[in-house]
Amino acid sequence: MPDPQNAHEGAAASQGLRVAVVGATGNAGTALLRALAQAPEVTSILGIARRMPDATAEPYASAEWASVDVAAASPESAVVERLTELFQGVDAVVHLAWLIQPLPERELLRRVNVEGTRRVLRAAAAAGVTQVVVASSVGVYAADPSTALRDEHWERGGIETSQYSVDKVAQEEVLDAFEVEHPEIAVTRLRPALVFQGDAASSIQRYFLSGAVPVQALKHARPPALPLPKGWRGVQAVHAEDLADAYTRAIVRRAPGAFNICADDVLGPQQLADIIDHGRYFELPTPIVRGFVTAAYRSGLISVDAGWFDLGLGAAHMDNSRAKQELGWQPTRTAADALRELIQGMIDGRGADSIPLRARDIDEARLSSLDGRVNGGEGNGGEGNGSEPSGAEPGSGTAGAPADGGSHAPTGSAANAGETNAAGGSAAESPTAGSDAGDSPSHEKTSENSENEFDWEIFGLYLSDHLTGATAGAERMERMSASYIDTPVYAGLSELAEELRLERAFLAHLIDDLEVRRRPYRQAAAWVGEHVGRLKLNGRVFSRSPLSLLLELELLRSAVIGKLGLWQTLGEHADELGLDADVFSSLSDRALAQASVLDAAHEYARARAFRQNPDTFGSDEDPATAAPSGPDPLPDAGAPAKPAAGAAAATGSAAVTGVAAVLGDGSTSGPNAERAAHDHDDALADEWGEESFPGSDPPGHY
Q1: What is the pLDDT of residue 8?
Q2: How far apart are CA 561 and CA 555, in angstroms?
Q3: HSE-CB for 218 with a 13 A CA cutoff
Q4: CA–CA distance from 28 to each of 86, 691, 700 (Å)?
Q5: Residue 608 pLDDT level (bands cut at 50, 70, 90)
Q6: Which residues contact 12 (CB under 8 A, 6 or more apart)?
Q7: How far apart, in whole angstroms, are the C-alpha atoms of residue 585 and residue 358?
Q8: DSSP string over 272-315
Q9: In the sheet where 42-49 sits, what is the strand order?
Q10: Does residue 464 share a domain with residue 329?
Q11: What is the pTM for the complete model shown?
Q12: Same domain (yes/no): 603, 534
């Protein structure tokens, strides 16, 4: 009798597989996109996330994209209906979405992680999908004090003090019931150990350690010895690329059941000490270490509570033999190598081109509407191979830089990029090459006898004032978006927060390249003022005031319109500054799109700000009021999907005139307008765009 798995592989090779990845922008999700793009059996990929990535950058350019909130702030019926539409024609659904933060919001975490899984499964069954692959975790296993390797039959039960572990157990119970109800669907569970890769370094630091932990200091010095709890048995890990290979093999082979995924080595005390310090460690009583973790979490020094400590101390050690035998899988990196790469990534501030995996170092992040890095130096994402990002115009990596490539600019800055553009061409091919080399923007070269002499002192003050406002605005926007993760407007606000962060960095680089004074004391005062302003209670002391969102949106909307004036002013004087006016025209369009996102959020907030209903900012029954998020919606299931690289791709890069304007063809009227509005009604923008975390990956992906 023929092997059904071999038969499935043969069919996949001849017809090609369409795979949908829910939570595709995080640690494991990003790695999986790379693996699927290289698999000859996979012909199309649908990425689903709450917050959209930069779809012009790899590996995100290899997928089509849709924004869906699986459970954070969305009614079940709308989510299941939308996902069912998206899953039409899909052979396998990979569910990676998992929320790890904010830890204090226990009900929110449970709803997204467990109920969200149930919704994805319901939609997959309704759409006729033949396989679902779900990210489980080592955390599903019961505690084991031994160092014996346990296979997939080891008792489940989790670690009771770990929210993450308890929810993973509940998730697998949902899978158990689904398997009984739908025996015709192959259900695959991958149970990975800790998942590491360099591109997830900044994300893992944010979600687990926080910025208060000085990991970057390891670049200059190592601790003399590593403190560890007494009796530490060690932990297992796997590189994200190896985990992605396991997912891909499970899909291609349509292999059902559970699979432990981990490297062959265990990170014990000596191994950790060899990697982190000078090979020396000392043991402390476990209660003392746990108490320190609890105190550090409550004081904000770290982002995770003692439940994670308990999970690391009690997790079973897994046997990966089944994955090797049935999937033909082999880890290509050791756990030690994966950890070294992660630590080096934290030191370097590495990241990827999605919001969950955004780089710590602003210079390594993309300002997507300019098709390049914020400093304009490298349109290829800093790989140095001279290639352009997908969909970029040649030379677009030098956005906004002075045309002369003057020697006064810092090495690698936007100005220097004028000498050689991102495609390897000369400055004449660059969008900034609008003047001769002698036409420097520097005020030192301006004729003193000119009647229309440019006043660089006043101009510098003007730019510095805008940088001050951008500093306060970016801080306020990031804090505000995080505060409303359980509302339909979260995705749009979160994407906008990242855009403001990058635009502030772009402006700072431009000021430096033009050799005008930043006046940093003003930016410092703005930062302090923004933080002090958070003490305003708006009538509430211990709970969130619905008035806060309304007022903050009004302030930020005014700030965005003010920023539009900045880009228009710079465009007006671009020639005499030696800059590219088209760059500022693009940024002006972007500001209009940002104002529309804030308008949509304001519509949501003003309808609820004065209600006494304590659930004002809970699940919204009218998804149409959600702020627009991400690229254009996918066409109907029966129509050919638009490739991400050909779409408006970059988040917020096209001007949006309101919620109903988020249309597949960019129009605001006609039959497409009604359909697009309906599409957006059915899908609240949610993403945990990244998949599960510690064992599956970080929490920025939802």
Answers
A1: 54
A2: 10
A3: 19
A4: 21, 6, 11
A5: confident
A6: 41, 91, 252
A7: 26
A8: HHHHHSSS-EEEE-HHHHHHHHHHHHHTTSSSS-HHHHHHHHHP
A9: 64-67, 42-49, 17-22, 92-95, 131-135, 186-192, 257-261
A10: no
A11: 0.71
A12: yes
Number of neighbours of residue 146 by Cβ within 10 angstroms: 9
pLDDT band at 465 (very low <50, low <70, confident <90, very high): confident
Of 657 and 331, the one with more pLDDT: 331
Q: Is residue 443 part of a domain?
A: no
Return the exposure string of 529-551: e unless at least 16 CB atoms fall within 10 Å of the residue's CB, then b: ebeeeeeeeeeeeeeebbbbbbe
- The answer to whether residues 316 and 462 belong to one domain is no
Q: What is the rounded distance in angstroms from the CA atom of residue 368 to the CA atom of residue 32?
A: 22
Measure Cα distances from 280 to 217, 219, 222 in Å: 18, 18, 11
Whether residue 697 is found in the same domain as residue 635: no
590 neighbors 624 (Cβ within 8 angstroms): no
Same domain, 660 and 601: yes
Instruction: Specify the CATH number for the domain of residue 56.
Output: 3.40.50.720
Specify the number of domains making up the chain.
2
Same domain, 697 and 646: no
Q: Are residues 584 and 477 in the same domain?
A: yes
DSSP character at residue 191? E
Predicted confidence at residue 370, as pLDDT, reads 53
Specify if 216 maps to a domain: no
Burial 444-478 (b: 16+ CB within 10 A, else e): eebeeeeeeeeebeebbeebbebbbbbbbbbbbbb
Same-domain pairing of 697 and 609: no
SS3 annotation, 467-521: HHHHHHHHHHHHHHHHHCCCCCCHHHHHHHHHHHHHHHHHHHHHHHHCCCCCCHH
Tokens for 76, please give them.
């079940």
- Residue 482 forms part of a structural domain: yes
Find out whether 370 and 432 touch, Cβ atoms under 8 Å.
Answer: no
**Which candidate, 649, 608, 652, places its Cα nearest to that of 627?**
652
Instruction: For 173-184, write each residue's pLDDT tens digit.
Output: 999 999 999 999
Q: Which two tokens stand for residue 425?
A: 């061409």
Task: Give the range of the structural domain holding residue 329, as residue numbers without chain letter.
Answer: 4-203+234-265+304-333+693-701
CA 85/CA 682 separation, integer angstroms: 10
Q: Is 476 helix (H, G, I), strand (E, B) or coil?
A: helix
| CA separation for the pair 515, 446 (Å, rounded) | 13
Please tell me what DSSP assigns to residue 666. S
- The one-letter amino acid code at 690 reads E
Structural domain includes residue 421: no
The residue count of the chain comes to: 702
* pLDDT tens column, 567-602: 999 999 988 888 888 999 999 999 999 999 999 989
The token pair that represents 524 in the structure block:
């410092």
